[in-house]
Write a structure and sequence with these properties.
This protein has 13 helices and no strands. The protein is mainly alpha-helical. InterPro entries: Alkylbase_DNA_Glycosylase/TA, DNA_glycosylase, HhH-GPD_domain.
């Protein structure tokens, strides 16, 4: 389902950036939307998915969720009550287990605020808070901002898909052997404010479109 502000966002991006406008025409409606769930559940899923294929990570994430109560607000407390053996048995690596333990402890102690408490905080304040959790870096915090909190002006310049999509959209073919510099993406992205999340979403779509083209 298109974003409720889709028309406004697309009109702005197309007006300030002709190449982005052409990408939008090729990619279609803006389907970026905030997902339901708690901040804890979003972070836990991100930790599980780190450095794994989507299918493998999904299987492990499903096993972990099967160990937890149906009510997401009870997940942090439930994690603390489960043994290491049970959680490792679900497929978690030692490092991911330690990260999820830290996340659960911080959440239970009120150090990982939920949606309502984060509503008045800036993106950078939220990133600073979330990256205090073991195993949570800036990229993971940016994904929470975009896909859990629905923040509209996030540009994860270090994301591989963003860098590839930017190269496909803005660089000539003979310039695409190397990924564009983070600073170049950030600088160009200033024109997309206050809708950089939508621009990022379309850069990911640029990668999808390129993969669909015959070699």
């Amino acid at each position: 389902m298109p974003h409720p502000r889709s028309d406004e966002i697309i009109a702005h991006l197309s007006a300030v950036d002709k190449k982005m406008g052409r990408l939008i025409q090729a990619a279609g409606p803006l389907l970026l939307s905030a997902q339901k769930g708690t901040i804890f559940s979003g972070l836990m899923k991100s930790i599980v998915y780190q450095q794994l294929s989507g299918k493998a990570a999904g299987t492990i994430h499903g096993r972990v969720l099967a160990l937890l109560p149906a009510e997401p607000s009870e997940h942090a407390t439930a994690i603390a009550a489960l043994s290491d053996e049970v959680l490792r048995g679900a497929g978690l690596s030692r490092n991911k287990l330690l990260s999820i333990r830290d996340l659960a402890a911080r959440s239970t102690a009120g150090l990982v605020p939920e949606r309502k408490a984060l509503a008045k905080k800036t993106d950078e304040e939220i990133i600073e808070l979330l990256t205090e959790v073991r195993g949570v870096g800036r990229w993971t915090a940016e994904m929470i901002l975009m896909f859990t909190l629905g923040r509209l002006d996030v540009l994860p310049v270090a994301d591989l898909g963003i860098r590839k999509g930017f190269g496909l959209t803005y660089l000539k073919k003979d310039q695409r052997e190397e990924l564009p510099a983070l600073e170049a993406i950030a600088r160009h992205g200033e024109r997309w404010r206050p809708f950089r999340s939508a621009a990022a979403w379309y850069l990911w779509r640029a990668c999808d479109l390129a993969s669909q083209k015959p070699a």
